[in-house]
Amino acid sequence: MEKNPDMLPKGVLHAVLGGKKFSLQRYEPSKEIGYFVQHYWVVRWDLRGQAPYSQTVLAHPNVNLVFEQGASGIFGVAPSTSSHMLAGQGHVFGVKFKPGGFFPFWQKPVSELYGTSTTIEEVFQVDTAALEAEILQLPDDQAMVDRFEQFLIERLPQQDPNVEKISQLVARIQADRNVLKVEDAVRLSDMTLRTMQRLFDRYVGVSPKSVIQRYRLHEAAQLIDQGVVSDWLEMSIALGYYDHSHFIRDFRSIVGVSPQQYRQIQSL
């Protein structure tokens, strides 16, 4: 189902503006692959005769494998926001691994991918250019999903119980607005603080603190985009912040502007 602007996922900044420029659709993986992969996604745009559009994203704590003409690769979690220029007509096919789900393929600390990328060849020993051309030339989204499912199922590693443990914990952090500190996440788990930090470095690629911060800021940006924020302090409290200034510092450090400046951009 095509997403309308209000249904674009958290992390797509200025979603109301972006929803006018591109479409985003997501597809569930098969059961076996779903142990490692959260979903597939396809972005399509047609800006022929229009000015290019730069879409900014605040990344989730996930590794993404992306097929884009001339720019395919495997991308770790970005330190802050990242922007992608859309021009002409095109599409991108992506694979969003679960938090922790890429490690069994990579077999190295996922923190080594933080803020950077690696080639598909390095991980899967395949000719990226040939696979990129094959997938992107397929006639529709489902055909791309089916082709990559076939590719991946031939290369599935053994299931690692830490993947399920980590992905479930990250989902709980995302859902619970009261999780603002690492100690709050520890209370949700059966891990010690040190164990959690070690597993997040190895499997997720960023710290528990970073995961918590990102999800709270996703919610804040979504509320601003929807135009429903009338009181900054009230929103801060609703998101679990006890100190409004702490919220502003977090927002500025990751998004790059203050919440007020972000709202002004949205209204332009």
UniProtKB/TrEMBL annotation:
SUPFAM superfamilies: Homeodomain-like
Gene Ontology terms, MF aspect: DNA-binding transcription factor activity; sequence-specific DNA binding
Annotated PROSITE patterns: HTH_ARAC_FAMILY_2
Keyword annotations: DNA-binding, Transcription, Transcription regulation
Pfam families, per database record: DUF6597, HTH_18
Ranges where the HTH araC/xylS-type domain occurs: 164-265
Xref: InterPro entries: AraC_XylS_family_regulators (IPR050204), DUF6597 (IPR046532), Homeodomain-like_sf (IPR009057), HTH_AraC (IPR018060)
Protein's name in the database: AraC family transcriptional regulator
Superkingdom in the source lineage: Bacteria
